[in-house]
Amino acid sequence: MALAFDEFGRPFIILREQEKKTRLRGLDAQKANIAAGKAVARILRTSLGPKGMDKMLQSPDGDVTITNDGATILEQMDVDNQIAKLMVELSRSQDYEIGDGTTGVVVMAGALLEQAEKLLERGIHPIRVAEGYEMASRIAFDHLERISQKFEFSADNIEPLVQTCMTTLSSKIVNRCKRALAEIAVKAVLAVADLERKDVNLDLIKVEGKVGGKLEDTELVYGIVVDKDMSHPQMPKRIEDAKIAILTCPFEPPKPKTKHKVDIDTVEKFQMLREQERKYFDEMVQKCKDVGATLVICQWGFDDEANHLLMHRNLPAVRWVGGVELELIAIATGGRIVPRFQELSPEKLGKAGLVREKSFGTTKDRMLYIEQCANSRAVTIFIRGGNKMMIEETKRSLHDALCVARNLIRNNSIVYGGGSAEISCSVAVETAADRHPGVEQYAIRSFADALDAVPLALAENSGLPPIDTLTAVKAQQVKESNPHCGIDCNDVGTNDMKEQNVFETLIGKQQQILLATQVVKMILKIDDVISPSDY
């Protein structure tokens, strides 16, 4: 305990004893942090690539998630360690920015940490390691730019986009119908894309799933699918050239906000009250009819009497439609959402070529399809599958594919997959290391070794001898100076990823290298961990 005395000779404590806190400092802290980072990377390592394994996560309330998506695995894992949380953040930021490559970025960061540990043991200062990594990441970043290729596609020639989406889907559980799903994803993105501005709003693509059927029944609906049915069983199930009134007000008699009490002591008064209510409903329904609506979609419920009247007046209606769905329906049909009956007017109605109710299998499940809309900028991908977990995983896989298609529209450069880009960068970084005098040279070399982790993991997951395969491919790349040679995971018999049509987006790869390097730099700079002790 550090004691000091003031001018009157009274002792006071400068630093209270830290018994309550556990403390790691210096090299121990860095080693503990690196171990935590490596532990997280090790979990994800096995789920990299087309032959990667899936993870099954059970939440505290018994929900089971089976997934291959790095971001989802880390999101659902209960991580306590602070450094491990950084890794979770890392994959999340890759997910937000790029949408794909969430597993690769964590594996990459884990490998960088592993290499850094060896350097620290040699007595190299962590800051020098971090600086060396920074230099190396710039070299790799520029090298990716050089080996990338522009990918020309148009609204008519979507094959390049489909091929890239198929690469993304090949590492997921849905890889047996990756062709069909990739086409669906690309068509959906192109339907909502603004090709002049090179921008895609993924909110306009709604992904809806229903258990039953098989994965091959997944379809793309140019319109909106709502998980609701008509409010009355006798209403027509198919409406052509529908004019849709989109309401956020309930079909119910108005309730005054104040507390009120109505005394009814004679039959006549009761008759009057009923008559009044009926007139109310009459007016509501009549307003909708006058405007020319042939379908009413309402956010709230109906009174039974209103339902009955709507049915008699031949005005089909849908109730309890959620707010987000209402907005999408409004965007798709070009209608306006109307908050009061008084404000209904013909120009606020949405238009759709066909509204139909579709029932599935032998169950009572029915869904409403709103198709051939005035503005087809909102589309729905409707997924079928054997069980709930399958559908959830398909949704995640499709999200990755949609993101890849969006990134390609924004920036149409691609690099080749299968670890070929990483091996090529590794060779480039290795050669560049000789040009740097000083201690950083070691760090740059280690960065080159760390880049090999991705192709190593790919080979390992595919059941190939990892080191032999990697050295063979690396030698081939150097000999033929062909940056398209990668790990042949699917046993096609060729290492050339160009022939195998395995592509990845350039911005996705660059983002991976930059993000992994940033996180590793941050972890290396921590030399003192003070944490409250566990009681």
Automatic annotation (TrEMBL):
Pfam families: Cpn60_TCP1. One of its GO terms (cellular component) is chaperonin-containing T-complex. This is T-complex protein 1 subunit epsilon. GO terms for molecular function: ATP binding; ATP hydrolysis activity; ATP-dependent protein folding chaperone; unfolded protein binding. InterPro entries: Chap_CCT_epsi (IPR012718), Chaperone_TCP-1 (IPR017998), Chaperonin_TCP-1_CS (IPR002194), Cpn60/GroEL/TCP-1 (IPR002423), GroEL-like_apical_dom_sf (IPR027409), GROEL-like_equatorial_sf (IPR027413), TCP-1-like_intermed_sf (IPR027410), TCP-1_chaperonin (IPR053374). It catalyses: ATP + H2O = ADP + phosphate + H(+). It comes from the Eukaryota. Belongs to the TCP-1 chaperonin family. The lineage of its organism: Eukaryota, Viridiplantae, Streptophyta, Embryophyta, Tracheophyta. SUPFAM superfamilies: GroEL apical domain-like, GroEL equatorial domain-like, GroEL-intermediate domain like. Its main location: cytoplasm. Signal peptide: none annotated. Component of the chaperonin-containing T-complex (TRiC), a molecular chaperone complex that assists the folding of actin, tubulin and other proteins upon ATP hydrolysis. The TRiC complex mediates the folding of WRAP53/TCAB1, thereby regulating telomere maintenance. As part of the TRiC complex may play a role in the assembly of BBSome, a complex involved in ciliogenesis regulating transports vesicles to the cilia. Gene3D superfamilies: GroEL, GroEL-like equatorial domain, TCP-1-like chaperonin intermediate domain. It is found in: Cytoplasm, Cytoskeleton, Microtubule organizing center, Centrosome. Component of the chaperonin-containing T-complex (TRiC), a hexadecamer composed of two identical back-to-back stacked rings enclosing a protein folding chamber. Each ring is made up of eight different subunits: TCP1/CCT1, CCT2, CCT3, CCT4, CCT5, CCT6A/CCT6, CCT7, CCT8. Interacts with PACRG. Interacts with DNAAF4. Interacts with DLEC1. Interacts with SPMAP2. Keywords: Acetylation, ATP-binding, Chaperone, Cytoplasm, Cytoskeleton, Hydrolase, Isopeptide bond, Nucleotide-binding, Phosphoprotein, Ubl conjugation.
